[in-house]
Every structure is written in structure tokens, then in C-alpha cells.
Prior knowledge:
Layout: H1 11-15, H2 19-30, E1 36-37, H3 38-45, H4 49-61, E2 65-71, E3 74-79, H5 84-103
Antiparallel strand pairs: 1-3, 2-3
Amino acid sequence: MDTEAFAGGTxxxxxxxxxxxxxxxxxxVDERERDLSISEVAQQAGVAQSTxxxxxxxxxxxxxxxxxxxxxxxxxYQLNEESEIAEKxxxxxxxxxxxxxxxxxxx
Length: 107
């Protein structure tokens, strides 16, 4: 039987499909109060700048991030705090952190 697994087409699977994309989202969530250049995002995520460029349009299209300003030849981006998806990702990050700390017995 040659059928696709159900989870393969779900919205969350699509969002977190790529581990590099997940790393980028994590950087924007963790640095939500700062706008970041492509090189800063790449460095913090541990990926190549080309990888950041590969995912920018997708993350902007979902309104998770937004372009904030131009600084010379560089464009800066930030978590889009007006986005419901971005807000939920921030909340999820906090919930997961709390649960991880509970599992480690640190709370």
C-alpha cells in the first residue's frame, strides 16, 4: 500500500518540516525584541546565510517575521509581534521550556 502518512500534510508538519527552518524560528522567537541581519540569524542558528535566504519568504508569508529596516546593504528582520502565529510560537517556546525544566527537576 503506497499512501502518504497523515501527519505529512498537516500545518505543523509543514511549518517544522525542515530542522533548519525550526532553528531560524527559534532564533527569531528567542531574540524577539531585536531585529537581526541575515548574518546574525545564520550565526545564531548555526546555518549558512543561504539557508536563511531559502526560508525568509516562507516565514514572511506566514507573517512569523517581518522586515524592519535597511542598514546599509543589509536588511534586518524581527519576529512579527502583530502575528497570531508568532505569538503562539512564543507561548509554545515558554511552555516547552517550563516542561523541560520540570522534567529535569529544576522547577
